[in-house]
Design goal:
33% helix, 10 helices, 4-stranded antiparallel beta sheet, 28 strands, 5-stranded mixed beta sheet, alpha+beta, 513 residues
């Protein structure tokens, strides 16, 4: 248990465990029982620390999978399978510890179990064993151990780097019968738990949890590349073309670099063939863009390995586009801009980065996102947006686009949020709000009713300020009978938070029930 590639801390813990197991053959003195308690505490602390560390490693692996893709996605998928399997078995073992602690309580002063009083283990003997065989619970424990090993093997199948971890798990949770020092063959649980002090069994179960945490950590560590690896051969490297950009104007300089993906930053190369030169361990590309369309870059890195020349070819492409003469300007939602609302506008110039493009017009302001503007048109029927672009070679290009300005369309009235004709009791109308809605309008606009006319059949019309019926309306409505239709018309509406009044709002009718 203390051999293999273990940390000094793990070796110490395992060695302590062996020593204390050996001492079980002796009479259980108070000191020995306390020592088992101390060992259990150390395992508990180690499990908490390793749980935190495992969580951090899994998060790092997920980040690697998100950023680097490729093999890290497969590794992360395996790690999450192992995480789920480990948690299930870890929690199961935690539930078994209740049998070892049954009948004892934590000391309120020390916060610890009474280790010296846990010199017997009757509850485990009674619940896990039945004569010379296992009880139903004993069988379930062995089945859970075997399932844990089996699930780990399935989750890591086909991954040779994890074979050593799987072998260690199989060894630590091997439920085969064991022959003791006197040559007597015993069942696994009987050998480790039957007739043992409760505190010894508790420490053993906590040690199991430590083994689970360690196996989980080993999987994560290997997936993250922390395990030792053999020195990679140059022939396994991949040459990567990294251009400063992927599209160039005709006649513009094509710049970039070709690098090798390699863990060792001190790689040395004997030569480079291609459109550029070697500088500080990387190839600096410098050439001139040709005709419009896709162009190829090709060459090779040359180096010596074991006295033999090796040539590693690379190939990449870039696209040459014509110099832009017009800007791309579009309204994100409609072909016109509306007065009284904020209109989102996108402005771009083909082949030019956003920081070199500026747009201007009355009421036009830049928003936080690249190429995005907000337009709040004022008076008039048209507005012109002017665009200027600074080209990579220092020259400028200009363009403009004209937009029509339209007013917000007329809304329709609503009672309690319902437009057209609605029905209900007088009390509902008395408590409902008169509002206005813009149907089939792409902008979110908050409207406020400032005035309306309230008309009950056979009664004088009441002009109301605000958006709710007043005492006069209620008095007129008191004379209405079932089937009478109350008309709310001449609704005046404005955009909330502004002075802009909208066109006449369509009336709404409320039928008395």
């Amino acid at each position: 248990m203390a051999g293999g590639k273990l940390t000094p801390r793990q070796k110490m813990i395992n060695l302590m465990y062996l020593v204390f197991i050996a001492m079980l053959a002796l009479n259980m003195s108070k000191e020995v029982l306390s020592a088992f308690g101390l060992m259990n505490e150390k395992f508990d602390s180690a499990n908490i620390a390793s749980g935190t560390n495992n969580k951090q490693m899994l998060e790092s692996l997920d980040k690697k999978a998100e950023e680097s893709k490729g093999e890290f996605i497969v590794a992360a998928a395996t790690a999450h399978k192992v995480e789920k399997i480990s948690k299930t078995f870890y929690d199961f073992v935690e539930s078994l510890k209740a049998d070892a602690k049954e009948g004892v309580e934590v000391d309120e002063k020390t916060g610890k179990l009474p280790y010296e009083a846990m010199d017997k283990g009757p509850h485990i003997d009674e619940k896990w064993f039945q004569g010379d065989n296992y009880s139903a619970k004993g069988n379930s424990i062995v089945a859970a151990m075997n399932k844990y090993v089996s699930d780990i093997k399935v989750a890591t199948a086909g991954q040779s780097k994890l074979a050593g971890i799987v072998k260690e798990v199989e060894s630590k949770f091997n439920t085969n019968d064991i022959t003791d020092g006197e040559g007597v063959k015993k069942k696994y649980l009987s050998y480790h738990f039957e007739h043992f002090p409760a505190i010894a069994s508790l420490a053993k179960l906590t040690a199991w949890q430590n083994d689970i945490r360690k196996a989980e950590a080993d999987v994560y560590s290997t997936a993250l590349g922390k395990a030792a690896v053999d020195e990679s051969s140059y022939s396994k490297f991949e040459a990567i073309v990294v251009l400063d950009k992927n599209a160039y104007f005709q006649g513009e300089k094509v710049t970039g670099k070709v690098v090798l993906g390699k863990y060792d930053p001190n790689a040395q190369f004997s030569g480079f063939q291609g459109p550029g030169r070697l500088e500080n361990g990387q190839a600096i590309i410098s050439t001139t863009a040709g005709a419009v369309g896709e162009q190829n870059l090709a060459g090779s890195f040359n180096f010596m390995e074991n006295g033999k020349p090796i040539k590693l070819p690379f190939k990449g492409t870039y696209v040459v586009v014509p110099r832009p003469k017009t800007a791309t300007i579009s309204a994100d939602k409609m072909n016109v801009v509306y007065r009284g609302v904020v209109n989102p506008i996108t402005v771009s110039f083909a082949g030019v980065s956003d920081n070199n493009v500026t747009a201007s017009a009355p009421g036009l302001v830049r928003s936080s996102a690249p190429g995005k503007y907000n337009m709040s048109p004022g008076s008039g029927t048209e507005i012109v947006i002017n665009v200027n672009a600074k080209m990579p070679d220092g020259t400028s290009a200009n363009d403009k686009r004209t937009f029509r300005i339209k007013n917000i369309p007329a809304p329709v009235g609503a009672i309690g949020g319902t437009v057209g004709i609605t029905k209900g009791a007088k009390s509902r109308l008395a408590s409902s709000q008169v509002s206005a809605k813009l149907l089939d309008f792409d902008f979110d606009v908050n409207l406020k009713v400032t005035q309306f006319t309230f008309k009950v059949p056979g009664q004088a019309a009441v002009i109301v300020s605000g958006d709710r019926v007043n005492a006069q309306c209620i008095a007129a409505m008191a004379k209405a009978t079932r089937g009478d239709q109350v008309t709310i018309s001449e609704i005046k509406t404005k955009v909330e938070g502004s002075t802009i009044m909208l066109p006449q709002t369509a009336p709404v009718i409320f039928e008395i029930l």
